[in-house]
Each structure stands twice: as C-alpha cells, then as structure tokens.
Automatic annotation (TrEMBL):
This is TetR/AcrR family transcriptional regulator. Transmembrane segments: none annotated. Keywords: DNA-binding, Transcription, Transcription regulation. Residues 29-48 bind DNA. The keyword Nucleotidyltransferase does not apply. Residues 6-66 form the HTH tetR-type domain. PROSITE patterns: HTH_TETR_1, HTH_TETR_2. InterPro entries: DNA-bd_HTH_TetR-type_CS, Homeodomain-like_sf, HTH_TetR, Tet_transcr_reg_TetR-rel_C_sf, TetR_C. It comes from Pendulispora albinea. The keyword ATP-binding does not apply.
Length: 194
C-alpha cells in the first residue's frame, strides 16, 4: 500500500506560486521556497525536483488557469461576442490595477525577468500567447459569422493586436497605474472590430 503524502501537492504548488510571484525566479531561493511551502528540504526535492522544475510546474499551472479565464470570458458571457471581447479585456485591466495587484502578473514578470534565456520558459510563454491569440481569433470569427464584425476584418491580425494590448496593459500597470488610460487603450483596441 502506498504511503500517503505528508502534504497536499496542489496546496504546496500554490504556496510555491506565491513565493515565485512575490520574489521572482531569481529571488526565490530554495530556503524561501521551503519557508513559503512549509515543506522540509527533502520533501520539496522529492516532490518537485529542483527549483527550476518546480518553477516550470508553477508556470504551467498558472498559464492553464489564465487561459481558462480567457476562454470563459470570451465564450461563456451572454450577449454579443464583441462585448464579450471588450469585457474580457476590461477584466484584464481590473486584475492589473485593482487592490493587491502590486506584484503584477506572473507571466509578465517571468517574461521580463527570464524571457528567452530559458528555452523551456520561453516555450511555455509562447504557448500561452499563441493560445490567447487563438481564443481571440475564434471569438472574432464567431462575431463575423454572426454579422457583428465586418467580414473583411483579419481575425488573426486583430487577435494578435489584442494580445499585445493585454500584455501592454500588464507592463504599463507597473509603471503608470492610471486605470482610465488602460481602459482607453482597451476601447481603442476593441474599436478595430467595428
């Protein structure tokens, strides 16, 4: 019979996420991860391997959560798809500028800290941005089919621009958290759908 784990795997992964999110990859030492997760050193290594492997697991989980939010926002809202796109992007602004958002977005933080220096992290981030683009493009295609969005619009080009806008919102929210300016950027981006 297998011995039960002495800790909850998902709970420890969430606690590790908080450490990486607060300190960044470089600032999150193994000692900080031990303190943050409450795991003994041996348990941490046994469950997750090394720091880099744990970080990749954290990022993979976070990316999946974010993509589910986008999918839900774009395809489970009642009403016109154009408004669903607008509200999904405004939700993004709210998450970037609301209370408790000082530490920013884990994806944006990782992209600026590690970027392409780690090929596995770069692949993971590229997968997220590609999937976001696909979700926006699918939403735009639905809007075109419903007659809400002009058939002449290039859904891939606009979708790519919407992804760039959402990521720009995240970066700018670190430097100039004027929510109204970010909302104006979203409204400008959504105006391309008209």
């Amino acid at each position: 019979m297998a011995r039960p784990r002495e800790f909850e795997f998902e709970e420890a992964l969430q606690k590790a996420t908080e450490v990486f999110w607060s300190l960044g990859y470089g600032g999150a030492s193994v000692d900080e991860l031990i303190k943050g997760t409450g795991l003994a050193r041996g348990s941490l290594y046994k469950a997750f391997g090394d720091k880099r492997t744990l970080f990749l697991m954290v990022m993979d989980r976070y990316v999946d959560q974010r993509l589910r939010l986008y999918s839900k926002g774009l395809f489970q809202r009642p009403g016109p798809i154009k408004e669903a796109i607008r509200q999904t992007m405004l939700d993004h602004v709210k998450r970037a500028t609301g209370p408790g958002t000082e530490r920013g977005c884990l994806v944006t933080n990782t992209a600026t800290e590690i970027g392409v220096r780690d090929p596995d992290v770069a692949l993971l981030l590229a997968r997220m941005f590609r999937r976001m683009e696909e979700l926006f493009a699918e939403a735009i295609a639905r809007g075109k089919a419903a007659g809400e969005i002009a058939a002449s619009k290039d859904e891939r080009a606009i979708a790519r621009f919407l992804v760039l806008t959402t990521q720009g919102v995240r970066v700018m929210s670190h430097m100039r958290p004027d929510r109204q300016q970010l909302v104006q950027a979203v409204e400008m981006a959504v105006s391309l759908l008209s």
